[in-house]
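Ticket #4471: structure output looks truncated?

Reporter: J.K.
Steps to reproduce: submitted the chain below (400 residues) through the standard prediction queue, then opened the result file.
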Amino acid sequence: MRPAEHDRVVIVGAGPVGLTLALLLGRAGIPALVLEAAPDIAEELRASTFHPPTLDMLDTLGLAQPLIAQGLVTPTWQVRVHETGERAEFDLGVLADDTAHPFRLQAEQHRLSRLLLAAIAEEPLVELRFGHAVTIVAQDADRARIAGEGFALEARYAIGCDGARSVVRRAMDLAFEGDTYPETTILATTPFPFHEVMPGLSNVNYIWTGSVAFSGTFSLLRVPGRWRASLYPAPGETIEQALEPAAIERKLQAIHPRAECYEVQDLRPYRIHQRIVPTYRVGRLLLAGDAAHLNSPSGGMGMNGGIHDAFELAATLGAVWRGGDPTLLDRYTRRRRPVAEREIIAQADRNRARMRERDPARRRALLEDLQRTASDPAKARAHLLRSSMIAGLREAAAVD
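Returned output as attached by the reporter:
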């Protein structure tokens, strides 16, 4: 085999993490091949929140402004009580000295994926193959080996950006330790303009309710042209019952009663996991994004954390590619795994636990504490540095 055919990086998975990594590698002069099992970019309901440091990173690729043009700039987010409208509102403007993008951007992740595809098309060192399901991954001291139906490839490194059921992770023989939460979340989208009927609503809202239609909480996140509602089965309601059209209608009517029925455009149930691997690297195989760590979507940190993985891995791999000691790749785990464990998984778990609180007195105490934090500029900045993922990135950058 000619050296040029295996002197490359193979990336398994063409989600936003894999595509970001491929573009970074191509622009660093490193040949990359992306293999994706699906025939095209996935456009079903997935992540939709981009945090400030992620936008800062994407800006270095020339992609932040095109993405912002397709999304909703969201300077505030809320925790609120549905029945009274009381809320704690956090204004990301206090981060103006910490980021060039002191806001969240609400835009579906496939919008970024499309921008990445267009940019990758201009990179001669990056190749993307859809319809290539990887089923075998192996390695020896010299190279990684990747195969599927009708193809067998070799590479200097193989990187799993292939999600929760990662074939690369299985080849690394790594435990994916953690838990699965007992509840099922139902994600529904509707074009109904909740912002026109719920005073003071932000584009990102985590909401306590006493309605019998829910198990104590729901969330409303706005994206261009529609709202994403995260709903939960009522007490005693099975997931099958909760997914029936009448049950979805009942839950949406509990958010805002109206004479007409709601138009539901998309509907998807999913279970939430918190899991992480013990290391992100075994020899010539590495992981990024959901292949390495899973967390509750509360706080919108999963996709963002994966993109941050991609930037750290690309920088580290670039140094090794240019002659650095391969053990430098272990720094990738040292920097990114603690962030995922402490700043992403644990923080998302706390967010989830707060919103699952059912006791009215405890809710009141939590709300008042959040209100005090939001109203104090110094406390608000400290809170937002963590919830916006800036603090974790700064701490990781100091790790040798």
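Triage note (M.O.): checked the attachment and the full token line is present. The mean pLDDT is 93.
Status: closed, working as intended.
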